[in-house]
Specification:
alpha/beta, 10 helices, eight-stranded parallel sheet
Length: 224
Amino acid sequence: MSITDNIKAIKNEIESVAVKLVAVSKTKPNEDILEAYNAGQRIFGENQVQEMLEKYEALPKDIQWHLVGHLQSNKVKYIAPFISLIHGVDSLKLLIEINKQALKNNRVIDCLLQIYIADEETKFGLGFDEAIELLESQEFTALKNIRIVGLMGIATNSENPKQIKEEFYELQTLFKGIKSSYFRNEDSFKELSMGMSADYSIAIEQGSTLVRIGSDIFGSRLVG
């Protein structure tokens, strides 16, 4: 199937549950992104700042770029002028830098707190207690140029659907708790970014609002 067919099939599957598709285009050429764009896709996810910058310069300006990988503080300034959503905020230090660069660009940048839910040491993210501690800190309260719009998590890379379901359920439970405790009156706190090509169906069952899909759209990643 073509990229166009893949986009249409996934959108047909998720539109009934009001879930947004982030087409993860890392390592993919601009021609592939344009094919997805021409099929109606507007949200694309990248995990490398340099690659995203090059694509941003070359591709249509109504694309919403999401950073879905681990972001280093010293790279924030490059994406601050245009980024739509940063999925992987995993420290107060990073938030402070995003706020600083957003202020320089006269913007408020939307962010998701990345929560550590996987049974894998290689994954990034805040522990549940760390997320609460961050939200209750005076330093966080002082940040006026970032907006926390939800949470993001990556499940364990496992063949066990029960484990994946439990991890997503825990994240959804934390999301609801944080929403009622800290963002009760903010309609903008509504995004739960969880689910990739291998597990997005489970994620949607557990309340995901953003699914990050790469290989099911563009095919397997190039290794080079």
